C-alpha cells in the first residue's frame, strides 16, 4: 500500500453543484465524480475538487492552492467541447503535475476516429475500412468502399449522433447522413464498413504490464429481428428501449483461443495509442473469428456499477482497489 496522497480531482465544471462543491453528500442521481471522490476519501487520501472550464486562471489558482501530488483527471470535455479533452491534459502536463489516465498524445490519437484507425492499420491491426467526409467540403463518394456503411461524427463518443439511420445502404442515404452529421455536429463524418458480428467491450488496466479485465458484450437480438444492429445512443442510454428489442449488456462467453487473441490485440492497441493506466477498447468479432477494433476509449466511465467497474469486480478487483490501482499506476509512471 502506498502512502496517502494529496489528490485534486479535476472534473468538468458543469458537474459541480453549487450547494456541494466538494462532493461531500451523495447526489440524487449517482455520478462517477462522486463515486471516485468518495472512494479516494475512503482510501484515506486528502482530496480536493477543482472544475475545469475555459477560465484557465481559476485552474492555475486551484492547483497553487491545493498543491496536489497527483491529479485524478475525470474531465471529458471543455465547456461541452469534447475535442478539448486533450488540451486539458496538455495544460496539466505544462503545469508538471502527475495525473491519472491518458495524456494529451493518447487523447489526440483516440478522439479522432479516423486518425486512430489510420495509425492502427499501419501497425497491421484490423479496423473497418472507411471514407472520411471533411466538414464544409463537398461530399465526394469513393467507388472502393462497400455498403452497408456506418456514418458517425469523427470526434464524438457515447454514441452521440449514432442511431439506426447511421447504417446506410445507398449513395443517397450516405449523402443524407453525412449532411446530417456535418450540420448537427459541425465536424467531419467518418463512414465505415459495417462489421457484422458480436460486440465486445474490453477493459484494460496497467502500463508496462497490462491486464485485460473480464470482457463485456452487448447482446443484440439479431435473429430475424427488425431491431438495432448497433449500440446506438438509445441502446446505450435507454433501458426501456433495450428491453423492447431484447438487447442486454453482460459478460461475454468467448472461446479460449479467441479470448487470447482479443487480449493480445487489445494490449497492442493500448500501447500503440499511448493509453495510460486504464482504458476500454470496443471491438467486433466476425463469425470467421476476425477481430475488428471499432474504437478505443481513453476515458471510459469508471463510476461504481458502470461497465468498467463491473468488469474489474468480476476480475477480483473491488471498486476500492480499482481506484487505488489507477492512482498507483499513474504515480509509478512519474517515479
Ligand atoms: N464499423 C462499424 N461496424 C459495426 N458497428 C459499428 C461500426 N462503427 C460503429 N458501430 C456501432 O456503433 C457503436 C458506437 O460506435 P463507436 O465508434 O464506438 O462510437 P462512440 O464513440 O460513440 O461509442 C458501436 O458500439 C457499434 O455498435
Ligand atoms: Mg464506443
Write the layout of secondary structure elements.
Elements: E1 6-12, H1 32-42, E2 46-52, H2 56-66, E3 70-73, H3 85-95, H4 104-111, H5 113-122, E4 130-133, E5 149-153, E6 167-168, H6 171-185, E7 189-193, E8 198-206, E9 210-212, E10 216-219, H7 233-237, H8 239-244, E11 248-251, H9 256-272, E12 277-285, E13 291-297, H10 307-314, H11 319-333
Parallel strand pairs: 1-2, 1-3
Antiparallel strand pairs: 4-7, 5-6, 5-7, 8-9, 8-10, 8-12, 10-11, 12-13
Helix pairs in contact: 1-11, 3-4
The structure holds adenosine-5'-diphosphate and magnesium ion.
Magnesium ion (MG) binds near residues 282 and 295.
Structure description:
It is a single chain. Helix content is 35%, strand content 21%. It has helices at residues 32-42, 56-66, 85-95, 104-111, 113-122, 171-185, 233-237, 239-244, 256-272, 307-314, 319-333; strands at residues 6-12, 46-52, 70-73, 130-133, 149-153, 167-168, 189-193, 198-206, 210-212, 216-219, 248-251, 277-285, 291-297. The longest helix has 17 residues, at 256-272. It is globular. The structure holds adenosine-5'-diphosphate and magnesium ion.
**Range of strand content:** 15-25%
**Assembly context of the chains:** single chain
Average pLDDT number: 94
Distance between the termini: 16 Å
Helix content: 25-40%
Number of self-contained structural domains: 3
Number of helices: 11
| Sheet of most strands | 6 strands, antiparallel
Within the CATH hierarchy, at the fold level, what is the topology of the largest domain?
A: D-amino Acid Aminotransferase, Chain A, domain 1
| Low-confidence residue ranges | none
| SSE order, one letter for each helix or strand | EHEHEHHHEEEHEEEEHHEHEEHH
Architecture (CATH level 2) name of the largest domain = 2-Layer Sandwich
Would you count the extended β strands for me? 13
Strand pairing plus helix content: what structural class?
alpha+beta
- CATH top level of the largest domain is Alpha Beta
**Ligands (ions, cofactors included):** adenosine-5'-diphosphate, magnesium ion
By CATH, the superfamily of the largest domain comes out as ATP-grasp fold, B domain
Cα radius of gyration in angstroms: 20 Å
Amino acid at each position: 500500500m502506498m502512502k496517502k496522497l494529496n489528490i485534486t480531482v479535476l472534473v468538468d465544471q458543469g458537474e459541480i453543484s453549487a450547494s456541494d462543491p466538494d462532493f461531500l453528500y451523495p447526489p440524487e442521481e449517482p455520478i462517477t465524480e462522486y463515486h471516485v471522490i468518495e472512494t479516494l476519501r475512503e482510501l484515506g487520501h486528502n482530496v480536493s475538487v477543482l472544475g475545469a472550464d475555459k477560465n484557465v486562471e481559476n485552474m492555475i489558482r486551484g492547483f497553487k492552492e491545493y498543491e496536489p501530488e497527483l491529479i485524478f483527471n475525470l474531465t471529458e470535455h471543455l465547456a461541452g467541447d469534447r475535442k478539448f479533452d486533450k488540451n486539458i491534459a496538455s495544460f496539466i502536463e505544462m503545469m508538471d503535475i502527475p495525473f491519472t489516465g491518458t495524456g494529451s498524445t493518447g487523447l489526440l490519437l483516440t478522439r479522432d476516429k479516423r486518425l486512430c484507425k489510420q495509425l492502427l492499420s499501419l501497425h497491421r491491426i484490423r479496423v473497418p475500412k472507411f471514407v472520411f467526409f471533411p466538414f464544409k467540403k463537398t461530399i465526394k463518394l469513393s467507388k472502393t468502399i462497400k455498403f452497408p456503411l456506418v456514418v458517425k461524427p469523427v470526434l464524438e463518443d457515447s454514441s452521440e449522433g449514432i442511431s439506426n439511420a447511421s447504417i446506410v445502404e445507398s449513395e443517397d442515404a450516405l449523402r443524407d447522413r453525412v449532411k446530417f452529421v456535418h450540420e448537427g455536429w459541425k465536424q467531419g463524418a467518418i463512414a465505415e464498413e459495417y462489421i457484422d458480428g458480436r460486440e465486445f467491450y474490453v477493459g484494460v488496466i496497467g502500463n508496462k504490464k497490462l491486464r485485460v479485465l473480464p470482457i463485456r458484450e452487448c447482446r443484440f437480438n439479431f435473429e430475424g429481428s427488425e431491431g438495432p444492429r448497433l449500440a446506438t445512443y438509445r441502446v446505450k442510454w435507454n433501458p426501456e428501449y433495450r428491453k423492447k428489442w431484447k438487447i442486454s449488456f453482460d459478460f461475454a462467453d468467448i472461446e479460449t483461443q479467441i479470448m487470447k487473441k482479443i487480449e493480445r490485440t487489445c494490449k497492442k492497441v493500448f500501447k500503440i495509442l499511448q493509453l495510460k493506466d486504464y482504458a476500454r477498447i470496443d471491438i467486433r468479432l466476425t463469425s470467421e473469428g476476425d477481430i475488428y477494433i471499432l474504437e478505443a476509449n481513453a476515458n471510459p466511465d469508471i463510476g461504481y456499477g458502470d461497465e468498467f467497474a463491473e468488469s474489474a469486480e468480476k476480475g477480483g478487483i473491488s471498486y476500492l482497489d480499482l481506484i487505488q490501482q489507477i492512482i498507483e499506476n499513474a504515480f509509478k509512471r512519474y517515479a
